[in-house]
Amino acid sequence: MTQKIIIENGEESLEIKPNDPLNELRNKAIETTINLLDAENIAHIIYIDDKFDIGGQKEVFKARLNELKNTGNHITSDTFNGIDWTAPQPKFESSILNLWEKTENKSALLFDVCTHTEDEDNSNIIPALEIKNCYGERIKLMTPDDWIKDKYKVIQELEENKKALCLFDFEFQSGNELTKGRNGVQLAKSLIDEEDYMEKIVCGIFSHKFTEEEEDEFREKYSEDYNIGLEKFYTISKRRFAFDPQISGFAEGIKNLLLLPYVEQLKTESLTVLTESNRKAGDRIKRMTPKTFNQIVQKSSLKEGVWEITTLFRLYGLLSKEENYNMIAEPTVRQNFNESIKKIREIDLKDTGYNSTVRNQQLIDLRNSELYLSGNIINKLHLPLTNGDIFKIKDKEYILLVQPCNLALRSNGKRDYDYDTGMLIPLKYIPKEKLNITSEEIKIAENLDQFYVAYFPGYKIISLDFLDLSVFNNNGNVSIDFRVPNLSNELIHFPWQKRYGYIYNSLITHEKRLMNLKLFGKL
Questions:
Q1: The whole model's pTM is what?
Q2: Residue 77: is it exposed, middle or buried by C-beta count within 10 angstroms (0-12/13-18/19+)?
Q3: Where does the source fall among the domains of life (predicted)?
């Protein structure tokens, strides 16, 4: 904003400049990016893009204006006052080409055209036209041919302990006479394969070929297609820059790129610990005597009414957890962890001002894995009824709420005191604003307007005899075939085979009143 208010009082003048929040946010993003570069000893960003060949953008300029003419989306700024948008095509093209030739600052002219509409093609051009204005001397702009001619001299000339952040556009259409048939990923791979420079560079692919949501998907694709380790480069969508006047999304993309080596290092250290601790946990199970293993897995399961495989998994989890702690009890191992985490935190705490609106499906899936076990799994395994099971009745879903000890099935196929009462709580959607959420991470991950919650006032009381039937059916249906009085299925835990007989005898007199329910999932 260039306007200002001046108040004169005698000989004094008081100048008041209006707030410009957009510009302030943009400056904050730029400042944070510079701080990140400084913290990582990065001398400058090297950005390789064919769009820096401004002479090669003449046809792009022409094509964009022809499209605006055909769609009736005319530019009315002073720069284009002399253009007759209704003129015949030859005359129109002649006038816009004349405008191109007589304009000294062609980058600014093309920028006006590309920012007039938001589309994929324009997102490919805008960053190259604007990025220098943002980062000044901290960024070096090169066409693909400039990069080839330079022969890595720009990297060789880096001061000791300094690095360069190299951003490669993916697709080259001009300025690439020396790189015909090659793209930015191939140029990045050639640089990455130069072992002498590995400590001096961090690489990213900066392209319009993918959206922000698709960055990780294309990173995996490029890694596989061009045989580059995932830990050696990152993908940043040009849309983070092109249509965000704050450019905070781009700053966040740079942050992600700089986090990459430290996150990958932490993952490697973690997998080393987990692999070794899992091996040791397996060895401890292998060294158990037959009588000890039988006591823990078979006898205790029988006594508690628990599936033996569940007990085995529990045993392995306990041993694995203990071995994990034994591994990181070693000071040097723990120190490596702490150093990696400290570095990640230092970078991550630098605020770019970016608020993501992108749904993080991987984070949601992991959260679901923590909270939810799919009916596709529990039904095929014939797992016993447990607190948190979700049932679908007609078009509504309900969650089972019972004291866990009351659900335990003993070896005789019965529950203690013949307990048979379950409570089904309906699940319903409520608006986000009516839900008190304390976990900001979940809000960011899901990016939903509504949440699924248990509505306790609508609870229903139901016989567990009915719900138990879901255990016997691969599809989770709560149903019984009264032509089968005895169940013979070795895949079902034997107490539940006994349980089937009790339920059959109890329900045979109520055959016509049996509800058709279906087990949907489990929390």
A1: 0.80
A2: exposed
A3: Bacteria
